[in-house]
Amino acid sequence: MTYVSFSKDKPLDFVAIGRLCIDLNANEINRPMEETMTFTKYVGGSPANITIGMSRLGQKTAFIGKIANDQMGRFIADYLQRNGIGAENVVIDRSGAVTGLAFTEIKSPTDCSILMYRDNVADLKLTAGEVSEDLIAQAKMFLISGTALAKSPSREAVFQALHYAKKHGAIIVFDLDYRPYTWTSEEETAVYYNLAAEKCDIILGTREEFDMMEAFEHNPDHNDDVTAARWFDYSAKIVVIKHGKEGSIAYTDDGASHKAKSFPAKVVKTFGAGDSYASGFLYGIMQGWTLEKSMEFGSASASIVISSHSCSDAMPTINQVLDYIESCNSGKII
Amino acid sequence: MTYVSFSKDKPLDFVAIGRLCIDLNANEINRPMEETMTFTKYVGGSPANITIGMSRLGQKTAFIGKIANDQMGRFIADYLQRNGIGAENVVIDRSGAVTGLAFTEIKSPTDCSILMYRDNVADLKLTAGEVSEDLIAQAKMFLISGTALAKSPSREAVFQALHYAKKHGAIIVFDLDYRPYTWTSEEETAVYYNLAAEKCDIILGTREEFDMMEAFEHNPDHNDDVTAARWFDYSAKIVVIKHGKEGSIAYTDDGASHKAKSFPAKVVKTFGAGDSYASGFLYGIMQGWTLEKSMEFGSASASIVISSHSCSDAMPTINQVLDYIESCNSGKII
Amino acid sequence: MTYVSFSKDKPLDFVAIGRLCIDLNANEINRPMEETMTFTKYVGGSPANITIGMSRLGQKTAFIGKIANDQMGRFIADYLQRNGIGAENVVIDRSGAVTGLAFTEIKSPTDCSILMYRDNVADLKLTAGEVSEDLIAQAKMFLISGTALAKSPSREAVFQALHYAKKHGAIIVFDLDYRPYTWTSEEETAVYYNLAAEKCDIILGTREEFDMMEAFEHNPDHNDDVTAARWFDYSAKIVVIKHGKEGSIAYTDDGASHKAKSFPAKVVKTFGAGDSYASGFLYGIMQGWTLEKSMEFGSASASIVISSHSCSDAMPTINQVLDYIESCNSGKII
Amino acid sequence: MTYVSFSKDKPLDFVAIGRLCIDLNANEINRPMEETMTFTKYVGGSPANITIGMSRLGQKTAFIGKIANDQMGRFIADYLQRNGIGAENVVIDRSGAVTGLAFTEIKSPTDCSILMYRDNVADLKLTAGEVSEDLIAQAKMFLISGTALAKSPSREAVFQALHYAKKHGAIIVFDLDYRPYTWTSEEETAVYYNLAAEKCDIILGTREEFDMMEAFEHNPDHNDDVTAARWFDYSAKIVVIKHGKEGSIAYTDDGASHKAKSFPAKVVKTFGAGDSYASGFLYGIMQGWTLEKSMEFGSASASIVISSHSCSDAMPTINQVLDYIESCNSGKII
Which family does the record claim for this protein (chains A, B, C, D) (predicted)? Predict the structure, then answer.
């Protein structure tokens, strides 16, 4: 059974809006960052990673965002183009903003952290007037990411984009992607996350992210059923709540819930798991696959990325995912 | 025919959220403010004035807002209580904010202006967590005012209040009350006004205010029919577009439009016309009167206030309005 | 003995830089401001009051400052001109700043307070580039006021003005005039007050103001001798430390200290005492009077102002001061 | 002839205050940064580099600054300690500030640029109250760097430090180190640079930096003699004006001017030339060498650093500098 259906005649499969930044990944890993002497540069940012993933899976994609008018910004624009992602609505900042940075620290495969540079970043300077209604009108699926709601004017750009996406009948995905910096308070976060979620068809997030959205609600047991049920009164068709290693659960507006198995991995670091899961899962949904199959595809995609050094660069092709599933099923990867 | 219906068993007729401030009205009028030497102090702010008007019309009312921790704030709290307005959710600021001020200049009855002090004002510091869900749950009608959307955290407080009002089935009124200061850009204004208006049952504003909301829409002729029609796809039952002296027009979700006559006045100043119109009109709606009768009552109320020196203090009682209508109809006021 | 001498051939006796604002004085006094219904408007701000005082004492004066581009600003400019104060270097703000306000509350002659509006005020927006070197070059005496150091760019304007005043040999007066709002911290205040004081010939302040300047110094007993002595190592010739009703003490760079009697007054309110003292005292200094006689003249001037409703408007003429001294000496005022 | 003399009995040769940050130097050079994929991390910041240089030349040194409470901050603290630089007055920020970053781009040996991250940086959060008077009291020479004047509260910390340095008789050096970001305007820069320079014994800067300081002065021909002469009326003993490849000129308060030869170099990049010149030159001054010999030692030190990949790490020892001079003089380096 499919829960969402897509306009066949739209030219773009997938458009996302939000954060474009730079990951600076530690080259010398399994040690504290104090002892890391060199870093390698990659394009990063959750919605960027998901879009790169979708593109690598053969989807026609485009991005809406803002980049700094400097070497980092130009590197990002160039990377998008080299990966076949439409960048005509990637606006160049003229206010002196910088590119967001994420220095990754990998103390061990299970002890990873990020040192973020998020002051005066270009991605949060996208304005509502810079969002292309035409581009969104061409998209079958449209994804927003919570971080883009963290500050004006990007916050307004996202709400305006949601308005366009709804008006033109795109399937709207909300990747919660909550990061505490930049936000003024948890109350502020909860208000805008809820306002945005009301308008979305598919909501993806961790249990902790949904908890944050329930700051004003009554769900003392952090019950997934209660959490998911709220959204079917609005626009939601699918709500996916992720529980890390314990797997995730997808609720649908017919009252059903769905689980799928996860896959083993030789973990290098945990970064990028959510983004690769999202691109794999959404790819499956767009193919009309069952939720279970889509979730499985997402899980395998996540296992591939966390076995690699980068996030964006490691996003797999369809064959890589299928091979990985096959290798796991045949016991080659355990 | 009535377009909205109210829960009979709720204890409060009317609750509003938003701006509480001080008007400093020129005592020596019909001259530029440079030549005015003394000013008289009144409670002001559009939603405050409307609530005072509703209270004077015999309705049970309460207010949700924030006041400065100073003499001006205490004067406001005291005035609300003396006027029978529930002030238990009027929070006292602890951050050193000040009370908003509006110095009025009356050069002539038709040439009036306001000098505003809106930096660091207490009313815009109300937070989402300070809004009482219990209070909103008791309200038959709940009014928001656009100015409260101008800045965080008040903006979030309004959206949270809208959530509560919708959850508890209040009839929600949006008095657009657009003031350009405080807002960062017209785009920002349009985005949040539209997000809020989607959730409201009754929308009241001037043609210029609706124009501002259509910054991203296509309505080149500023056509009222086009403007009103948009909102019936969301929650709206009644949309009132005001055209100053040329009167106003009320659209309803059955496709009808309604006009009503206005009344003569010995105009002292134009301030307060909109607020007294709103309280008179909404009073009529709450009594189950026809739109025409409600609009007439609002118009008479407005004529009374613009014939007086103050706004809040001049808000009329039912008998004053009925007498005024009678005096106009009998030719005593021309 | 005279401690400072003035260039005879300079055309202006006195130029000041800094705060120009509006006092809104309670008309109904001897009650809390909550019960005051009307206010009267006056020009205010410590350096403005002192300059008005100097002008009323027959000195040729000019002011350097910035006013809001509104009715309050125009009232101030007009008042200066009507009082014979050169306003060619009173710049009009173009950034949307407002005029600072001071609502006075007079609960009793000895229990007075001020409610200040100091957010986004025009006077603190004066820039270094807007200060006229030519004007300062014409001044025999040049006065700065501590409040103008509270924030950039006014802070830089004051330091640039000090540079010009020193370069052109004006006698520089520092009226400490410390107000805690606007400043970020006491440390910040102390640093800039000290930097400015190093360049001044005459320093006037209350004991509490000098205490604030000694945040990083060692003067645990708040000893006036210790306080004054520091400044004679820099540029100071006269340091006046005021102790409210207990009178004030003037130190001079020859190691002497000077006291003078104070005068009785039928006190209406305490505001303006310091400003009128300063203008009277500095007038005496400019006439070459002894310190004792100058202090006496300042004290009588202060007694006149605190017996009146306003500050600026009540600044006395020479004859008024002399009459007041005579009336006190003859027992008519006790 | 020596122009400055040092207290023999102070335990520290050299203390500096100001910027501590991270350089991220492109590993793949001679190309635009867009094509650089990896970066190597070094401690950076002009006063940090000079202090590292002084330490490598065998001087007893300490630093006054503020570091972020993160991995970058801890790396800096650790590096200082490993280099024998006293870090007891290197304060850890608790406000969530980040470490300043400088990504270097080396397109060619003569076409180098820096991409700066200076928003919300820890080094500009040092407060006046955090500066240790005791530490400054122990210093023979004390250096300030202009960048630390760019913003409050670091600006106040520098002025307070200057007060302590003057009080305790340190020889005060001002390395102008002007960087346009962070500053609000050139006027603001000029005012504070001049205020600080008045208190300094040795002033070092490029012609362009001195031009910036003369925003309010009259020196239309950018004449070095005019520039230098101003400062001898204040505290200056030596003023060094640098003209890039054309060499530099040192003025002294006896009216003399001094030039010294520069040295050839196999230039990798131009960064760090000024810092290594400063440490070499100041080392010579502290040894009582002539200006010519000190300048030569500084020039050779600069040539060594610009022949290397890093700034801080490449700071030479005495023997390295002497060898370099010898190699140049003997024609081994041309």
Answer: Belongs to the carbohydrate kinase PfkB family.
ipTM for this model: 0.96
Q: Tally the domains of chain C.
A: 1
What does each C-alpha distance from D68 to D81, D99, D103 come to in angstroms? 16, 5, 18
In a domain, C119, yes or no: no
Closest CA to B117 of B63, B179, B27: B179
Question: Chain A interface, mutation test: which of D22, D27, D39, D120, most A Cβ atoms within 10 Å?
Answer: D39
Interface of B with A (CB under 8 A): 127-129, 152-153, 156, 159-160, 163, 184-185, 187-188, 190-192, 194-195, 216
Compare CB distances from D71 to A41, A72, A115 and report the shortest one's residue. Answer: A115
- Using pLDDT thresholds of 50, 70 and 90, give the confidence band for residue B213: very high
| Chain B nearest C-alpha distance from A185 (Å) | 9
Structure tokens at C179: 């107000």
Q: Is residue C277 part of a domain?
A: yes
Query: Cα separations (Å) of A253 from A4, A232, A235, A276?
Result: 10, 6, 9, 25
- Cβ A41–D36 below 8 Å, yes or no? yes
Answer whether residue A102 is part of any domain. Answer: no
Interchain proximity D188–C129, CB inside 8 Å: no
Q: Per-residue pLDDT for C1 more than 70?
A: no
pLDDT digits (tens, 9 = 90+) for C233-259: 999 999 999 998 788 999 999 999 999
A81 contacts in chain D (CB < 8 Å):
none
H or E element that contains B144: strand B139-145
Q: Which tens digit of pLDDT belongs to each residue from B238-252?
A: 999 999 878 899 999
- pLDDT over 80 (residue A1): no
Please give the model's pTM, rounded to 2 decimal places. Answer: 0.96
pLDDT in tens, A203-253: 999 999 999 999 999 999 999 999 999 999 999 999 999 998 788 999 999
Structural domain boundaries enclosing C65: 12-20+46-92+126-329
Angle CA D145–D147–D151, to nearest 5: 125
C104 assigned to some structural domain: no
Q: Which residues of B touch A185 (CB under 8 A)?
A: 127, 153
A163: CATH? 3.40.1190.20
Closest CA to D115 of D100, D125, D93, D128: D100
Q: Is B100 within 8 Å of B65 (Cβ atoms)?
A: no
